[in-house]
Amino acid sequence: MQFKAMILDNAEVSPGYWRMRMTAPPEILAAQPGQFAMVRVNPSIDPLIRRPFGVFDVGMHQPAYTGAAAQPYLEILYRVVGKGTAMLAALHETDLLDIIAPLGTGFDLGPAGEEKLIVGGGVGLAPLYLLAKELVQQSPVRLFAGGRTKDDVLCITEFERLGVECYTATEDGSLGECGFVTKVLEQRLDCTGNTGRIFACGPHGMLQAVAGIAAKRGVPCQVSLEGYMACGVGACLGCVCEGAGHSADTPDYRCVCSEGPVFEATELKWEVA
Length: 273
What we know:
Distance between the termini: 41 Å
Order of helices and strands: EEEEEHEEHEHEEHEHEEEE
Helix content: 10-25%
CATH architecture of the largest domain: 3-Layer(aba) Sandwich
CATH superfamily of the largest domain: Nucleotide-binding domain of ferredoxin-NADP reductase (FNR) module
CATH topology of the largest domain: Rossmann fold
Number of domains: 2
Structural class: alpha/beta
Radius of gyration: 18 Å
Largest sheet: 7 strands, mixed
CATH class of the largest domain: Alpha Beta
Shape: globular
Strand order of the largest sheet: 10-9-8-7-11-12-15
Strand content: 25-35%
């Protein structure tokens, strides 16, 4: 659905990373973990194309003043990397945005009771908070969060408040283990055996490593992909990726926005390491 949203809060949560809360219609409360929003960051034609952002959270916002009714909200977590996101970071409370949401295919939560392992890198943690919020109601959940530095490991306190057991890793050793977060994931799997399933979102290299770890150990794994997209509904075909059966003779393409952004890792073609 397309709607006008009023910004309720827009704050920098870590250097270069921002969290925005905005009003939304009641239907947003049915958004599935892993779905995304297409945001028009400026009412003018520059920039013309909407930007995609994972749904970080949805819920009911209670205004601070007495007697005000609670209203549905949508939250996104974003990193300032260019003109569009810089415009978002400059917006303030009561500013308006044009939104299309929720879009795409979300995560399959899997059976209740089994261990769930969530792996995120940097702003890839954005769609994983709502996922954790849903999973903790039925399963034990562990989060593996990584980044180049401690500034790239986002919202850990919020995950912990949900009851999620959190592990962190940074490439420079400024927070948690020193190295890639996939190393910490492997250590956990080696200690516990092949139980539960994995959910991951982050840089392509991290997703490829997670997919390989899961395949080697026979653990079900879902990945949420990022893609350059203009429409968000499968019309422009700007965000296609290669499916597992892709070759020059038998093309197999998947549209990230409409068929994804969440895929079973076994559905996709990964580079040979």
